[in-house]
Amino acid sequence: MASTRNFLNRIDVDGAPVRVNRTLPLVGRRIVQFCGGYEARYFFCAENPIADLISKFLTRFHSCWISLRKLPKFKNFSIWRGRLPHWRADDVTYYVTFRHRRALDESERVALLRALMRPDTKRWDLLVVCVLPENTELIFTVREHVEGVKYELAQIVEKEKTRVGKQIIKKTGERFPPFYTESYDRIIRDQDELETRWREIIESPVNAELVESPGDYTGLHVSEAGLSAPSPQA
């Protein structure tokens, strides 16, 4: 072990001396200037699989930490976690997607689309929603329940999924509804991301070779409001 530490203390990377984290004897650390701040680059020096895993974890941890520092400033930001993390804030646009346990037929896709449109203009403002056989994607903004308090988007989505799931179970005799119980949601960061996701959702039926034109797909709804949705300021 001592020889490994001595080796770490002597090694240079790209001509710069290495700063060793002595609490992790098999992992070295170098501090470099990065985008106006500092980044810690961890590397593996000895042929030890445990040290290799530690170095990869530390490198990824610092990458995530730097990404978080660059996030826009959200109003009334909060996080809660189920099986997935869920970020909440005021005056933002959300992207939500969830997978289906099995492929939905056309009548089931239309039923789900109509269910997701029910809260439109009441609890949320849908910008676009597309129900594919294997998954569903939507973009929307959430309305206020009472003054200063927004509706919880997970309750809206899961309520409509449950409603349609019960209808499908009653019709098909299946034991479980064809939807998983939790959805992935994301705060859209800026206008560029909004436009990219908007375009991807609209083009998804064509890319899945279900129709030749998005307008021909019965499981797609596009709001007349277009892309006039709020996005956080960086």
What does this structure look like?
The chain contains five helices and 14 strands. With 234 residues, it is α+β, with helices and mostly antiparallel strands. A hairpin with a 2-residue loop joins strand 1 and strand 2. Helix 3 runs antiparallel to helix 4 (153-172). It is globular. 20% of the residues are buried. Mean pLDDT is 77; it is low at 1-46.
Give the strand tally: 14
CATH superfamily of the largest domain: Transposase IS200-like
* Count of all domains: 2
- Mean pLDDT equals 77
Strand line-up across the major sheet? 13-8-10-9-14
Radius of gyration: 24 Å
Question: Number of helical segments?
Answer: 5
Terminal Cα span: 47 Å
- CATH fold label of the largest domain: Alpha-Beta Plaits
Largest sheet: 5 strands, antiparallel
Topology, element by element:
Elements: H1 2-10, E1 12-13, E2 16-17, E3 19-20, E4 27-34, E5 37-44, H2 49-69, E6 75-81, E7 85-90, E8 94-99, H3 106-117, E9 124-131, E10 135-142, E11 144-146, E12 149-150, H4 153-172, E13 184-187, H5 191-207, E14 220-222
Helix pairs in contact: 3-4
State the gist of this model:
The chain is an alpha+beta fold.
Relevant terms:
three-stranded antiparallel β-sheet, 234 residues, five-stranded antiparallel β-sheet, 2 domains, disordered N terminus, alpha+beta, globular, 34% helix, Alpha-Beta Plaits
